[in-house]
Design goal:
It is a single chain. By secondary structure, this protein is mostly helical. About 65% of the residues lie in helices and about 0% in strands. The protein has 11 helices and no strands. The longest helix has 25 residues. The protein starts with a helix and ends with a helix.
Length: about 210
C-alpha cells in the first residue's frame, strides 16, 4: 500500500478520490469496509455488498456536506443509514408504511437471522436485535460496535445529542423486553437481560459473531 495514502486523513482521501485519484478511493474503501459490512449484514444479509458500494459512491457525491471539523464516521454512517432506508422503501408497495422509528428488520423480513452464532445466547440476542425498531438497532450497533460517541451518533442520525441519549436508553429497554419475552417462552436461565451491564457486554460481544458469521 502507498504510504502516502495510508497516512492521509479520511477527508483528504475522499477529496482526492473525488478529484480522480482511484487509489485514494480504494484506500478509503478498505479502511471502512469491515465497519460498513457489519452495519449492513445485520439488516440486509443478501444485499450488503451492493449497499456498501452505494454508500461509498454517495459519500463521494455529497463530499461537500462533510466538514473536516466533524467525524468522518458520523458522516459515513449517516450516508449508510440513508442508503439503507432507501433500500427498504424501494421494496415496499406503500412506502409510507415504513417508519424506521417503529418498524424493525424482522417486520420487513420475518425470516430468522442468517448469522451463525457461537451459542444459543448469541442466537437469541442477534434475533432480538432484529426485532427492535430499526433506528434503535442502528444506534445500539453504532455505539457498542463502532464506539461512536453521542456527538458522532448525532451527526450520523441528524438529531440532537439529547435525542441520541434517549434512543440509547430506549434501545436497551426495547432489547431487554424482547429478550425477557423470549426467556418467558423458553428457559430464563442465562438470559442476556439479567442486568444492564451484562446486556451491554453481550451486545458488544455480538460484534465478533457478525464479523465471522
Amino acid at each position: 500500500m502507498d504510504r502516502r495514502l495510508s497516512s492521509m486523513t479520511d477527508e483528504a482521501l475522499l477529496r482526492a478520490w473525488a478529484a480522480g485519484d482511484e487509489a485514494a478511493g480504494a484506500t478509503l474503501f478498505r479502511r471502512h469496509f469491515v465497519a460498513l459490512r457489519r452495519f449492513f449484514r445485520t439488516k440486509v444479509p443478501l444485499d450488503y455488498d451492493d449497499l456498501i458500494q452505494a454508500t461509498m459512491l454517495e459519500c463521494m457525491r455529497c463530499k461537500d456536506r462533510f466538514r473536516g471539523d466533524a467525524s468522518f464516521q458520523g458522516f459515513l454512517f449517516g450516508v449508510a443509514r440513508n442508503c439503507l432506508l432507501h433500500h427498504f422503501r424501494s421494496r415496499l408497495r406503500d412506502r409510507l408504511d415504513f417508519d424506521a422509528s417503529q418498524s424493525s428488520v424482522a417486520d420487513l423480513d420475518p425470516r430468522p437471522s442468517t448469522l451463525v452464532a457461537r451459542n444459543a445466547e448469541h442466537t437469541r440476542l442477534a434475533e432480538a436485535m432484529r426485532r427492535i425498531p430499526l433506528d434503535l438497532q442502528i444506534v445500539l450497533e453504532l455505539h457498542y460496535w463502532e464506539n461512536l460517541s453521542t456527538r458522532e451518533l448525532a451527526e450520523a442520525l441528524a438529531v440532537p445529542q439529547g435525542t441520541v441519549k434517549s434512543r440509547l436508553r430506549r434501545g436497551r429497554e426495547a432489547l431487554r423486553e424482547v429478550l425477557d419475552g423470549a426467556a418467558a417462552v423458553g428457559s430464563a436461565a442465562g438470559s442476556a437481560a439479567a442486568d444492564e451491564a451484562g446486556l451491554e457486554a453481550d451486545v458488544r460481544a455480538l460484534r465478533a459473531v457478525v464479523d465471522v458469521g
